[in-house]
Amino acid sequence: MNCITPIRLNPVGFRSVFINHYCLIRFNIKHKKPHEKAHPSSSLGSLSAAHQLFDELRQRVCKTEVLMEEENWEASSSSETEEPGFAADDDEEFHSGPKLQFRVGSSKARWVTELGMAEVEVKRGKLWTTTGIIRSGKTYCFIEEALYLSEIGELQILGNEDVVIPLKGLYEMVTEEKSGCCWESYEVYRYLKGLGYILGRHGVPWTSKGAAIMTPSGEGEDSVTKLLGDMQLCDAREVFDVYLPNSRFKKSSPGEPSFVACLSGDSPPSKEDVRVLQSRIAAPLRFCHIAQGRVSFFSFSSINLPILP
Amino acid sequence: MQINSMAPRWKWKGAEAKALAEPISKSVSELQLSLAKTESSGSLSSCNVLLAVEPEQAELLDRCCFGKLVLSAEKVKKWIQLSFEEAFYLLYILKCIKLSLRGRCLENEVDTWMYMRSKRPNFPAFFKTYSHLRSKNWVLRSGLQYGVDFVAYRHHPSLVHSEYSVLVQSGDSDRLRVWSDVHCAVRLSGSVAKTLLTLHVSGNSNREDLNLPTCLENYRVEEQTISRWSPELSREDETTSPTPKVTNVSNLKTP
After folding, report:
1. pLDDT tens readout for residues B150-183
2. Is A267 in contact with B178 (Cβ distance < 8 A)?
3. Domain annotation for chain A: domains and CATH numbers
4. Most buried residue, A89, A107, B48, B206, by CB count within 10 Å?
């Protein structure tokens, strides 16, 4: 830490300086008696002390600067400025997501039981460029999107009589598997989203101009029946289209996904399962294995070794 | 169809050129001619075949990576230990050796096949995969050190590192049936910089048919690689697809 010029501390406000896109706060604290050695509790002895003070004050702090930092973080996690190997050292940090929840006036959505989705009513932040589907000019999100955003404090879901559905209620909706997403799928969603990837349910277009929203997991009877029919052919199933982090992502033209995340249940996919899935999906497949909150991705690829001279 | 493109790692500068100058197929042909000319004969034991050869032939066998030299003081003749797969390949595919069992020469290939099968029930699937890759001029050695069935080299092990660790999967095998097996095999392969390759042997497996080596023609071998992908290492904002994760091999892209 560089040396700090002492100035008067306003108990409500403080100066924050952003050194890099991780929020590093420097405090300027006034010493009561300049000639005396600063008392440890009021001196800027360490970064952890600074963070502690920050925690205590954040409730009363003007949100604008902090808001900016949050958005920068969102955007920067999907920008090219990070070194590729960078995140490997900060494994745990990315897995657990941002720890501090700043938002009070966050986005709001209303859960619509008939649709099995939430209709977004208030949007805050750039995150909506990569979350939720658009139908007739409105944005809707699936349970995994709603839950993830709620977990990180970005979204409040309203239920009956405008009561905010607590996290407990949202978790139940996932574990009960009534909204098209099981817990394993959610783990995959959360893990990849936290790393900046863009995910959408396989088979659900991001936008559908003019089409009213019909069913939660498909665009009409035909596709749902087809989906169910396909699923019966093998134990493995496709779950999410995954796109690389992309600050220029557009729902109107998302392009081809980088890969399709699949689940195969609690055993690896058989060769036949892989063949069946790959025959109807052009993109590369990656099979997810979820255990103890850790997600691993495996490719099972058909190849043909060349004939050597 | 995805091709797992891990470039061959040649062991020294000039190794690749040497490999190109002396293709495996050529060495194998030379070996075939040499062994046939001297009517080389091997004797079957319960787990391998012992082949007596001239010193030049021992060198040829080494060049094609068949067998392991049994060290002895003897200078006139050399003894090579061959695995069942290697021996049967020389016998049945290259047709350049003869085999004897307990002093009696086995005239019929079927007898050898039956004997080997009786000692190792998984021999048919193992041999099918061995000959599948050998016919494509890949060099196969035992994979025991790496916890797999074979390791596949693009050329002689002195010139190149092996690229694939090979596991044999037949219809009724229970290998890689649980996720921890997959994690284990992939991690092991990755830690020695190889790609895990599974060879699935399938076909009409009539029990009677297995008695004849001609059943081999009815079998099909399908190749599949299994690799692990690490999302942390592949987030560049490009259209190129992420590279699979291989531990101990740097795949960090320079910005």
Report:
1. 999 999 999 999 899 999 998 777 899 999 999 9
2. yes
3. 106-180 (3.40.1170.20), 182-207+222-301 (3.40.1350.10)
4. A107
